[in-house]
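RECORD TYPE: inverse folding
INPUT: structure tokens
STRUCTURE:
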């Protein structure tokens, strides 16, 4: 049952479901189940790394956009500006 749920979560790319399933990993009865779980866990690792890279890329884009917006804003005069 757990293996099927993990396969489904991987196909749907459901991060929350994957996380919950990893938190409640069962003991496996056969070597075949262990091998299948091992393969699926490698797929989970690949998925997580891809999501991590995509998140880092998105954050970098946001930072670049913020820096661009800051550079295009005109500086508002300070009320403490003593230049006449």
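DESIGNED SEQUENCE:
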């Amino acid at each position: 049952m757990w293996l099927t749920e993990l396969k489904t979560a991987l196909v749907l790319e459901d991060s929350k479901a994957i996380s919950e399933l990893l938190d409640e990993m069962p003991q496996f009865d056969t070597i075949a189940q262990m091998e299948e779980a091992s393969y699926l866990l490698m797929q989970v690792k690949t998925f997580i790394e891809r999501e991590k890279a995509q998140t880092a890329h998105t954050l970098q884009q946001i930072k670049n956009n913020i820096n661009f917006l800051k550079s295009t804003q005109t500086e508002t005069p300070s009320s403490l500006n003593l230049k006449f």
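NOTES: The mean pLDDT is 91.
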